[in-house]
Amino acid sequence: MGILVAIEGLDGAGKQTIVGRIHAAAQERGARTATFTFPRYGESITADLASEALHGAHGDLRNSVYAMALLFALDRAAAGAALKAACREHDLVICDRYVASNAAYSAARLGEQIESSSVVDWVSDLEFGRFRVPVPDHQLLLGVPPEVAMARASGRAASDADRPVDHYERDGDLQSAVYAAYTDLASANWMSDWSHAADDDAVAAVMSLLS
Structure pTM? Predict the structure, then answer.
């Protein structure tokens, strides 16, 4: 079985870039690698519904923390078989966002502390329990603070009309709360071992798992 690694962080933290660099570094070592990006916009109806809600569609859907979390969870559930197959067939499987994203955003939106959060327990029970998506072997939080990540996301939106900022990305208080929730998840080693790094250190942290 291969190693399943989740790369977590705010929108604009550079997850896609880091995933690409890890993928390239692993292939240089001869490791068989696969990558997944969540939410699977353009591939999954539930992911697309969530995206549409975050851009103002579907009435008050986005106001429900549990409804939004369920849509993102259903997206991963639909990819569960492919994830499990990839873990069987590859040495390293890298996810750009995974279940911890649902936990962090949901807890932050409800103002719950990670150590006593009922919604974090609900996300874990739903995704790993009921939907049986694979538990990651390691999770890496990109240490990019909210103000930097938000500036990057806004700059990306200005240069790419297909990637406008959504309701979550525009909310500075939410982004700060999500970053704090991610940090607490990492400190608690929620569901697996975590590392907290950025840039070259992030690549090195994942590559060390293949040693």
Answer: 0.91
